[in-house]
Amino acid sequence: MIVAVWLGAWLLVALVAESPRWPGLPGRVQSLLAPLAFGATLLWLWEVTVRTLDVPRVILPAPSLIWDRLIRSTDILWVDFVQTFVKGALSGYAIGVGAALVFALLVDRSDFLRRGLLPVGNFLAALPIIGTAPIMVMWFDFDWPSKAAVVVAMVFFPMLVNTVQGLASTDAMQRDLMRTYSASWTQSLLKLRLPAAMPFIFNGLKIASTLALIGAIVAEFFGSPTRGMGFRISTEVGRLQLDMVWAEIAVAALAGSLFYGILALAERGVTFWHPSQRKR
């Protein structure tokens, strides 16, 4: 019975995914049907499997129990969301990305920085977060500034490398054309090199968006006030309240997906001229 329902749901998802796309807004809504149906199928299979095999809730709670915990603990989840995502992740993301953009312009104008800073940056980017996070907590105290500092360290160099590569993506003929127009460095930057770098910049923004949330959550494992997603996950695991742990994971996944989706929509609007966007 379970296998038959699963195969039927799989066939429905395949039919929705392969059906011709409608034009305009209905087409965009239609593109969401396949992943929503697939996700609903996975949740149904998870619920049925856990209840059929009588899996203990300390091992894997059913989705219905996680949903019930989400509804009953909205106040706690909201406080944790503000502490981790709004204060820690978003503030660190804004500082790290902004600093990387400024440094990329400096690196672009200086061969010394390009040859000296970027190799050092690659080395620092490879440092493990479990080693740097406790140091940041000691430097910036237990509240959200230490988590924002960890996020800055995680997002700065991926954003810097992508921006520098984007600024160097124009070819010699395009740069020669700007020189024949007697364009200054600022005019060449604003009218040629920065627009050409936008796909690379948005690539860095999307990579940094996922790193920011991971960094903020992991940093809370090494010291935080009595709130935050990382703090809640670590304490509720110790209390064997796995439904609360999964509720925090669900909120983090939803927030991260929405953040990434907003950046993807902004990329589509800004880089509409790029071949990768025109194909969609």
Written account of the structure:
With about 280 residues, the protein is mainly α. It is about 80% helix and about 0% strand. The two termini are about 40 Å apart. The mean pLDDT is about 85.
Rg result: 23 Å
Helix share, percent: over 70%
**Treating each run of at least 4 consecutive H or I residues as one helix, how many helices?**
12
**How confident overall, as mean pLDDT?**
85
Note the run of SSEs as H and E: HHHHHHHHHHHH
In total, the number of strands is 0
Poorly predicted runs of 5 or more residues:
none
Proportion of beta-strand residues: under 5%
Q: What's the N-to-C terminus distance?
A: 39 Å
Please describe the biggest sheet, giving its number of strands, its sense, and whether it closes into a barrel. Answer: none
Helices and strands: which structural class?
Answer: mainly alpha
Shape descriptor: flat
Summary of the model, kept short:
This protein has 280 residues and is mainly α. The longest helix has 36 residues, at 74-109.
How is the secondary structure organized here?
Elements: H1 2-18, H2 24-53, H3 63-72, H4 74-109, H5 111-125, H6 129-140, H7 144-167, H8 172-180, H9 185-219, H10 229-238, H11 242-270, H12 275-278
Q: What key attributes describe this structure?
A:
single chain; 12 helices; mainly alpha; 280 residues
